[in-house]
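Section 3.1: Structural characterization of target chains.
Under the original work plan, the team committed to producing a structural model for every single-chain target entering the pipeline before any wet-lab resources were allocated. The record below documents one such target. The sequence was received from the expression subgroup and is listed exactly as submitted; it comprises 129 residues.
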Amino acid sequence: MTDTDRDIPPTPGDTLLFENDRVRVWSMTLEPHGMFDFHQHHHDHVVVWPESGIAQGQDLGDEDWGISQVAEPGFVLYKTVGRTQPLKPHRIRNLEDRTVTHFIIELLDESPSEHELPWEHNDRGSFTK
């Protein structure tokens, strides 16, 4: 981990809604064309978009916003972070002219995978990186 990574918060949302010893549930509300700054995921997690939305993400150090999320209502993503290291820090911005909210559910138990695995999602949207 670099010194820069140590300054990146491990909070994947703006509001902590629930926490116990097994899960942590966050909401992330993005104002029209707003951004949630660099953060890092340390746990396997599920992302749920209850309403439609279009967002872009940017990994730390990348010039381009190379991550795209196009969500229809009920879009669900799952990410295995693995046990080796946290995900690369990234930020997200809302491309909509309206406020959008999605939820991040962190699974606090140790990941069953040693390493990061590709994103999985349902058929209610798209995720490209």
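The helical segments are 3-6.
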